[in-house]
Every structure is written in C-alpha cells, then in structure tokens.
Amino acid sequence: MRHPLLLALLTLGGACSAAQAEQIGSVDTAFQWLGANHKIVIEAFDDPKVDGVACHVSKAQTGGIKGSLGLAEDTSDASIACRQVGPIVFRESFKNGEEVFTERRSLLFKKLRVVRFLDEKRKTLVYLVYSDKLVEGSPKNSVTAVPLMAWPGSAALPATPVR
C-alpha cells in the first residue's frame, strides 16, 4: 500500500516544479492613508528546467487595508523580461505552454502565470506572462524571448527539449 502513496507524492512533487520568485525592489505608485501604498513590484526567478535563463517580472500590487491583509484583487498589469545569464542547459524536457511560475493575485480565483514555449525554427525560448481568473481572465499580457545562442566558453547549443 505504501508504493501507490509514494508514487502519488513523487508525481505531486514533479508537478510543483514552478519557480520561486525573489523580490528585487518596488516603487510606490499611490499613497494610502491606511495600510501599504499601491506599488509596482519587481521579482526575479530562474527557469526551473532551463539553467542559464533568468526572468524579471514587474507587476502592480494593491495597497490599502485590503492589500495589507491579502484580501485585495491585484490588477492584471504585468511585464516580463528574460535573459540568458549563463550557459543554457536543459535539465529535463518540457511541453510548450508549460507553466514556469505562478503567483496568487487575489484571495481565491486569480493567478499570475508565466509559461514557456520553444520556437524551434528561430532557436528561441519564449516566455509569456498573463493573469487568469476562474470566471473572466484578462487579455493583458507581455512576452519576451531568449535566443539559444552559444554562451562564450560553451561548446554548442542544447538539444531540442520539447516533448
């Protein structure tokens, strides 16, 4: 009986491989008398399946009492920039459209998501940031691309990793 449980835990652990973000900084955009100010926050994360790629996301963060308590619904405004920061190495294969990063944007139903695609023809990794909501998502999005060029000192481009 332990084997099915162990298999389920290992499967769940593999499904939770999305990156964790590190806050780089923020700027206030509107003063609030009570609670935190409204902000634009910049966070960074490394792609969990592709070594040598780092992404920076800027996003709006609601302040005030609701925002300070984690009850506010943040807007869908976000921007992304990903760059090659070292030799690119694919740790494991991935599917196009696979989630790289996710973060809650409201108490229950809204999430900010970053997904990855491989443009094989142009030898480029493409990252898309958007937000979704259970009932009605937002078309607001931002995209960035990282060319798969050899890093100085590395031998060659990585093998195609898409399954």
Which SSEs are present, and which pair or pack?
Elements: H1 2-15, E1 22-30, E2 38-46, E3 50-61, H2 64-69, E4 78-90, E5 98-104, E6 110-119, E7 124-133, E8 141-147
Antiparallel strand pairs: 1-2, 2-3, 3-4, 5-6, 6-7, 7-8
Overview features:
163 residues; mainly beta; four-stranded antiparallel beta sheet; 47% strand; elongated; disordered N terminus
Overview in brief:
With 163 residues, this protein is mainly beta. Helix content is 12%, strand content 47%. It has one domain (19-147).
Radius of gyration computed on alpha carbons: 18 Å
How much β-strand is present in the residues? over 45%
Domain count: 1
Contiguous helical run count: 2
Walk across the major sheet and give the strand order.
1-2-3-4
Global shape? elongated
Given the helix and strand composition, which structural class is it? mainly beta
Major β-sheet profile: 4 strands, antiparallel
Give the CA-CA distance, first to last residue: 32 Å
SSE series: HEEEHEEEEE
Helix coverage percent of residues? 10-25%
Q: How many β strands by DSSP?
A: 8
Q: Residue ranges: pLDDT <50 for 5 or more in a row? A: 1-16
Tell me, rounded to a whole number, the average pLDDT: 80
Keywords: Signal
Signal peptide: 1-21
Protein name: CreA protein
Pfam families: CreA
Describe the structure.
By secondary structure, the chain is mainly β. The protein has one domain (19-147). The chain is 12% helix and 47% strand. It is built from 2 helices and 8 strands, in the order αβββαβββββ. The strands form 2 sheets. It has a 4-stranded antiparallel sheet with strand order 1-2-3-4, with no helix packed on it. It has a 4-stranded antiparallel sheet with strand order 5-6-7-8, with no helix packed on it. The longest helix is centred in the N-terminal third of the chain and has 14 residues, at 2-15. Mean pLDDT is 80; it is low at 1-16. Residues 1-21 form the signal peptide. Keywords: Signal. This is CreA protein.
